[in-house]
Amino acid sequence: MLAELGQLLLALALASTLLVGVQQMLAFQRGGFDANAANRLLSVTAFTSFGLTLGAFALLAALFIGSDFSVLNVAENSNTLLPVQYKFAASWGSHEGSFLLWNLMLCGWTAALAVASRGLAASYRARVLTILILLQSFFLLFMVSSSNPFERLLPAAPEGRDLNPLLQDPFMVIHPPMLYMGYVGFAVAFAFAVAALMERRLDPTWARWSRPWANAAWSFLTVGILLGSWWAYRELGWGGWWFWDPVENASLMPWLAGTALIHSLAVTDKRDALKSWTILLSIVAFALSLLGTFLVRSGVLTSVHAFATDPRRGIFILSMLTLIVGAALVLYAMRTRDIGLGGRFGKVSRESFLLANNVLMTAALGAVMLGTLYPLFAEVISGRKMSVGPPYFEAVFVPLLLPAAYLMAAAPGLRWKEQTLSVLLRPMAIATAISLALATGWVLLLGPFKWLTALGLAGGLLLIWGTLDHARKQLLKVGGETGHPLPLTTRMQRLGASYWGMVLAHLGVAGFVIGVTMVKSYETEQDIAMKQGQTVEVGNGWRLTFVGVDRVNGPNYVAQHGVFELTEGAGQVIYLLEPQKRMYQAGRQVMTEASINYGVFRDIYVSLGDPVEAKPTDAVSDLSWGVRIYMKPFMVWVWLGCLMMAVGGFVTLVDRRYRLRRAATVPASAAASPTLGGGTGAQGA
Amino acid sequence: MMKSPIRRRRLLWIAAIALTVSGTAYGVIRAFSENMVFFYTPTQLLAGEAPAGRSLRIGGMVEAGSIEREPGTLTVRFRMTDQDRTIPVTYTGVLPDLFKEGKGAVAQGELNNGVFVASEILAKHDENYMPPKLKN
C-alpha cells in the first residue's frame, strides 16, 4: 500500500508542477498577467510539491526501515540484518532513491525561495519560481516514467540483497544529501540568471539576491566533496583520498564553476561589472551539476557499453540536460547584449584579481573536463578504451592553481576599480620573500630541497599572512585607530559576516594548500608481510608492532580483526590500530576497513591484506599477513581546510546585506547604497 | 600609419592574453597526451598492438585456479584472460578486496618478456565491473 501511495504522491507532484509551470510560461509569453496572483499560485505549488515529495520520500524511508522486500528498490539495496541508520540511508543508496532525494532537495530549495523571496520584484519572482517548478516537473517526469523508486517485485524476495558494504559508513549517510544540496542549490542561481535573461534586464541588486544562494550551494557542495573524499580515505582501505576518478571529477567540475561564480558574483554585486560573465557562470555551474548527475547515474562511466545496453535512463537525463542547458544558452546568446558587460575597471584592481581567479578556475575546469570526457568520446568514436590518470591532473592542476594562492593573498587588500601597482608591490614583495624563506627553511629541515614543495608551502604561508594582515588593517579602519577604539566585537560586526566568511574560507584554502603539499611530498607507503610480534619503522620516528589477528562478529558481517601497537620512538604505546577485513554475509563481499590514528601533523594508517602463504619450513606462529602502512603528514589539514572553506561560505549567509528588503519598491540607486551603517561601506572600500 | 598609444597598448594586451591562453592550452594538451594510458585486452597485447616501454592497462578475467602466491612475500602471480588468449601477470603488494579468481580485473603496468609486470591492480568502484568483451 505504502509503495502505491508514494507513487501516487509523485504523480500528483508531477501533475501540479507541470500544469502550473507550463501555464505560467504561457502567461509570460502572452504578457499582461497579474504577477501577484501568479506568485501566490506559484508559492502554493512550491509548498505542495515539497510536501508531496517529502511524503513520498518518507514513505520510501518507511519501506526501507520496515524491510518491505516486495519493493524492488528495497530488495536490491537493503537487508534485515542492516543496522537501522543504514536502512534509512539505503533509501538514497540506489539510482531511483537518489533521484527522489535530488528532487526533494530541489523542492526544498524552491519552497525556501518562495518564503525568502518576498522582497523580489513580483514579475521577476514569478519567473524565478516558474523556472524552478518546471525543473521539478522534469525530474518528476523522469522518476515517474523511467526511474520509479516504488516499483513492486512480485513475488516478494524473502531477503534483501543488502546495501553495498562500501556505503555502510556514517559518512556515506550524509555525503549524498550534502552533494545534492550543492548540485541542486545551483539551480537557484540558474533560475535567477535565466529569469533575468527572460526579463531582458539585470536589476542592480540581482547579484545581491543571487549571492547567498550561490554561497550556500557552494558550501554544501564543498562539504559533500569533503565527505566523499574522506570516505574514500577511510573506507576504500587503500589510503588514497582523491583518485581523479570520473565520479569524483563529476563533482569537482561544478565546484570549480561554483567557485568562479561566487567570486564573479562579488564583482557584479559590488561593482556592477562582469555581468554577462556572471550570468553565463550561473548557467554553467548548474549545467555541470546536471552533467555530474548524468555521468554518475547513467552508467556511462562504468562502461559506455553498460550505457548502451540500457540507454533509456541515460538518454532521458541527457536529453533533459540538453534541453535545459541548451535553452538557457540560446537565451543567453540572444539576450546577453541587453544585459551588457557592466562597469569597467583597471588592470590592477580587486576586480581584475577576482577575474584572474575566474580565469584560473575556468582553465582548471576545462582541464578536468578534457580528462574526464575525452576518454568517453574516444571510446564511443574509435572503440579504443583509454584513460588519463592522476599524473595528468596533477601536472595540470599544480601550475594552474598554485598561482591562485599567491593572487589570493593580495586580492582582498586591493581597491576596487583601480590601484597603482607600486602600492601593492612593496608589501607583497616583502611578504612573499619572507614566506619563501620560511618555506625553504621548512623544506630543508625535513630533508633535501624540493622547489615545488617550497613553493606550495610558501603559497600557503603567504595566504595566511595576507588574509590575517588585511583583517587586522580592516579592524583598525572601522574604529580602532582613534584614541578610544571601539570594542573588538563591535568592529568585527561592522565588517560584516560576509567579510569574515571570506577570511575563514581563504584561511581554509591556505590550510588545504599546506596539507596537500606536505602529504604529496612526504607521505610514506609500505606494503609488507608482517609476522606476529614483528615491529616496523613508520616514517620518521614511529614504530608499529603487529600483535595478531582474531575473529570478531559484526551485525551483518564477520571480520578478521588485526591489532597493531603504535609507539613513538622507543616509548610507550600511544595508540592501538585495529584494521579489519570484513566479510559481509548477504553478498559475501570482502571489505577492508582501515584503521587510522589521526594527528595534527601526521596520520598513521594501517590496512590488513590477506594472510601470506607460509613457507614449508615455517611454524604456525610464523604466519604473516600482508599489511599496508602509510604515514601521511598534515592529512588532517586537507580535511579541516575544506571544512573551513565550507564554514566560511555558510557564515556569509547571515550577513545583513543579503536580507531581502522590499527592495523592489525602492529606486535602484537607493537600494544599492549602503543602508547598514559603516559595515558595508568599510568592506567595499 | 600612426597608431594611437591606446590602440597599441590594447593590441599588446590582446597579444599577451592570446599567448597565455594558447600556452596554457598547449601545456594541458601536452600533459594529456603524455599521460594517456590505453587499455588492452590480452589478445591485443599478445598480438603486439601495444607500444613498448609505455605504461598501459590490461583488462580481463583472473583465470580460475591461476593465482599463485610466493611463500613468505607479497608477490602474486596469476593469469589474465579474455577467453581467447591468456597472459601471465605478476604483482607485489597488497591486493584489492575485489580481486578474485574468475572475476574481472584491471592491471596497470608494463609488458616485460611476455610477462605483464603490474604496478597497480585497480580496485573498481563497482564490483559488477566486467571487461566489455566478456559481457555480451
What is the top-level CATH class of the domain at 1-163 in chain A?
Mainly Alpha
Question: Roughly what fraction of the amino acids of chain A lie in strands?
Answer: 5-15%
End-to-end Cα distance of chain A: 62 Å
Assign the CATH topology of the largest domain in chain B. OB fold (Dihydrolipoamide Acetyltransferase, E2P)
Strand order of the largest sheet of chain B: 2-4-5-7-6
Overall CATH architecture of the domain at 1-163 in chain A: Up-down Bundle
Mean pLDDT of chain A: 87
> Are there runs of chain A of 5+ residues with pLDDT below 50, and where?
662-685
List keywords for this structure.
heterodimer; A: 685 residues; alpha+beta; Four Helix Bundle (Hemerythrin (Met), subunit A); four-stranded antiparallel beta sheet; 11 strands; globular; B: 136 residues; OB fold (Dihydrolipoamide Acetyltransferase, E2P); five-stranded mixed beta barrel
Report on this structure.
The complex is a heterodimer of chains A (685) and B (136). With 685 residues, chain A is α+β, with helices and mostly antiparallel strands. Among the domains of chain A are: 1-163, Four Helix Bundle (Hemerythrin (Met), subunit A) (Up-down Bundle), CATH 1.20.120; 524-613 and 623-637, no CATH class. Chain A has 21 helices and eleven strands. In chain A, β7 (580-584) and β8 form a beta hairpin. Chain A is globular. Chain B is α+β, with helices and mostly antiparallel strands and 136 residues long. Chain B folds into two domains: 1-36; 39-135, Nucleic acid-binding proteins (OB fold (Dihydrolipoamide Acetyltransferase, E2P)). Helix content of chain B is 29%, strand content 33%. In chain B, strands 2-4-5-7-6 form a five-stranded mixed β-barrel. The interface between A and B is large, with 49 and 36 residues. β1 (386-388) of chain A pairs antiparallel with β1 of chain B, so a sheet runs across the interface.
